[in-house]
Amino acid sequence: MLRCLFTLLSCLPGLVLCGQDSLVLRPVEISAPREQVFAVGQFSQQFDSTTLSRYQGNQLPLLLAQEASTGLKQYSPAGLSTLALRGSAAQHTAVLWNGFPVQSPMNGLLELSLPAFAALDAIHLQYGGSAALYGSGAVGGALHLYSRAGTQEGFHGHLGLGGGSFRASNAEGGLSWRRGKSALSVRGFFQQAANDFVFRGNFGVKQRMPNAAMWLGGGMLNAERRTGKFGTLQIALWHQQSARQIPPGRAAETDSARQADRFWRLSAVWTRRRGPVVLKMRAFGSRESLDYESLSTPLAESRLQNAIAETEASYRLGRQVFHLGLHTQYNHATYTDWQEARTRGRAALWAAWRRSGRRAAYSFALRQEWADGAAQPFTGSGGAEWQLGKHWRVRSTLARSFSLPGFNDLYWPVLGNPNLRPERGLNAELGLQYLAGNWDMQLAHFQILIQDWIQWRPGADGQWRPLNLLEGWSRGLEWRGQWHKKFGGGVQLRVQAQYAYTRASDLKASNEALKGKQLIYVPEHQGSIQEILFFKNWECRLIQRMSGKRYSSADNLSSVAAFGLADLYAAWHKKTFSANLSLQNLFNRQYEIVAFQPMPGIQLQAGLNWRF
C-alpha cells in the first residue's frame, strides 16, 4: 500500500506539466536563493525583518512555536531546543546561514536558542526533502537564516532595549551605510535572563527553577561592494558567545551543569551577472567551541572547524533556467575523550533546471555527493505548480534525500559505530491552494519514508549504541489559511490559522508492542490561530496555539500531556519609534514539551525600538 501511494504521488509532477499556457505565475530572479528558484511545488514560510522585530529579546523557538506548526522540541528556556519537520528527527532538518550549512557535523544539529534575532534579517522555513539542493540533512526540511547589508541609501541606525519577567533584559543596536557601489552595516546584541520561574514539582509542591540562567552576546558585520561593471562582492562576519546553566528538570536533583558556546562564522559571495548568465563563487569558514561541565561530568571540550567552497553558474534561456554547481567541504573536530581528531572531506556535483510557463512551473534537481572518497546516496527532486482557473493552484513534489551519520554516532568512545550507513529519505507531497479576494488557503498531504534511521539502543550488555534500525514512515495533512479585511478609519483585521496532523511510526518494529505506535515526541495534532487588529498606529495580536500529547516511550505507554496556550502582543508605531508589550502563556498554564522539563508560566516582556 505504501509503495502504491508513493507511485501515485510520483506521477503527479508529470501530470501537472500537461496544463495549458495562459496565466502568468510569479517570475523568479535566477540569482535568488536556490529554495526560491529550484524548489517549485514545495511549501515554505518566510519571515522578514518586520516579523523578526516582534521577537526582540526572545529566541528562535518562540517564533517557530507561534508562526509555524513544527515539531519543536524544547527542554526549557535555557535548555536544548531542536526542530524536526513532518515527523522526522532534528538531524533531518538542514540549517543554513546565507546558504551555507551550519548544523554541527558532530551531532547533525543546530541548537535553536543560540542564533540571536538581532543577527538575522530574514528566516525562511522550507518543508520537505531538498538534499538535491543542499546535501546531507535536508530530509524533513530546511531552515534558512539570512544576514544582509542595509538596502537604504545614506546613513541609518537603530537601537532596541527590552526587559521582562524572570530578570530578563536585552539590548541591540546597529549602524548601516550605503552609497553608490558600497554598503556597510555593523550591529551588536546582548540578552540575559535568570529563568527562575515558579512551577509545580513532584507531588504538586511549588518551587523555583534552579540553575537556569543564560546570557548571550555578539556582533555582526555585513559589507557589500560592486566590483567592476557586472560583479558584486558580499561579506558577512558573525561572532557570538553564550553561557547557560542547564536546569535539572522536575524529576532530578539540583545539578550545577553549565555549557558555554562560542563561534566565528565568515561567508563571502562574489556574484557576476551579465546578460542571461549568473556566476557565483562562494566561500565559508567557521570556528566553534562547546564546553560542558556538571557535578557528575568533568569538563568536556569540543572544538570544530569547517570550511566550504562552492561554484555555481546559471543560464537563462527564454522561460528556462539551467544551473550547475560544485561543492567542497572539510570538517575537523576534536573532543576531550577522543584519542585523535576526526575529519571529514566532502564534495558534491549538482544540476538543476526550471521552466516557468504562463500557467505552469516546474523544476528538477540532481545531486551526487562523496564523503571521504565514498559515494553517498544519489539524490534528486522534482516539483511542479499548475494554475487552475483564477483562484486555484495545484502543486506536487517528489524527492530523494539522505543524512550522514554524525561524528558522535561514528566515533563516540567505546560505543560509537563506524559501520553506520547514511539515512535515506523519500518524500512526496501534493498540495492545493485557493487564493481569492480576502482569502488564502492551502492544504497539503505529505509522505516521508526514512530508511536506515539511526537509533541509539541498549545492547545485551546494557550499553547504548547507535544502529541503523528504524524505518520511519511519516504521513499527514497540513492546512493553512488567512483572511483579511480593511475597514474605514485605518482599521484592518487579519486572521491566520494553521493545523497539522502527523502520523509517524516504525515499519520495522521487531517488537509487537511497538508496531504501529507513534514515534516519540511527534504530536499527532498541533496548530495555532492568530487574530490581528491594526488601528492607526496600533497593532494587537491574540495568538492561540495547541499541541496534542507527545509520547515519551516507544510503546506509547508514557506521554506528555497536550496543552493549549494563549499569548497577547501589542505594539505602538510612530514614524521611527515603536514600543511593544507581550504577555506569553496568558492564563498561566503549566505545561511540558519534553517529559519532566517544566516550561514557564505567565511572563511579561516589553521593548522599545528607535530607528534613525
Features:
612 residues; mainly beta; Maltoporin, Chain A; 22-stranded antiparallel β-barrel; five-stranded mixed sheet; 6 helices; globular; disordered N terminus
Topology:
Layout: H1 2-16, H2 34-37, E1 44-47, H3 49-53, H4 60-67, E2 71-74, E3 81-84, E4 93-97, E5 100-101, E6 122-127, H5 131-134, E7 141-146, E8 154-164, E9 168-179, E10 182-193, E11 198-200, E12 206-208, E13 214-227, E14 231-245, E15 258-274, E16 277-293, E17 300-317, E18 320-335, E19 342-356, E20 360-371, E21 374-375, E22 379-388, E23 392-403, H6 407-411, E24 423-436, E25 439-458, E26 464-486, E27 491-506, E28 525-535, E29 538-547, E30 550-551, E31 559-560, E32 563-574, E33 577-584, E34 603-611
Parallel strand pairs: 4-7
Antiparallel strand pairs: 1-6, 2-3, 4-5, 6-7, 8-9, 8-34, 9-10, 10-13, 11-12, 13-14, 14-15, 15-16, 16-17, 17-18, 18-19, 19-20, 20-21, 20-22, 22-23, 23-24, 24-25, 25-26, 26-27, 27-28, 28-29, 29-32, 30-31, 32-33, 33-34
Report on this structure.
The protein contains six helices and 34 strands. The protein is 7% helix and 57% strand. With 612 residues, it is mainly beta. It has a 22-stranded antiparallel barrel. Strands 1-6-7-4-5 form a five-stranded mixed beta sheet. A hairpin with a 2-residue loop joins strand 24 and strand 25 (439-458). It has one domain (2-155, 209-611): TonB-dependent receptor, beta-barrel domain (Maltoporin, Chain A, Beta Barrel).
Q: Please state the CA-atom Rg, rounded to the nearest Å.
A: 24 Å
CATH level-4 homologous superfamily: TonB-dependent receptor, beta-barrel domain
For the record, the CATH class is: Mainly Beta
Share of helical residues: under 10%
Average pLDDT works out at 91
Q: Count the DSSP helices.
A: 6
Pick out the low-confidence regions: 1-24
Amount of beta strand: over 45%
Question: What is the number of independent domains?
Answer: 1
**Major sheet details:** 22 strands, antiparallel, barrel
Shape: globular
Here the CATH topology equals Maltoporin, Chain A
The helix-and-strand class reads mainly beta
> Architecture in CATH?
Beta Barrel
The overall strand count is: 34
Span between N and C termini?
61 Å
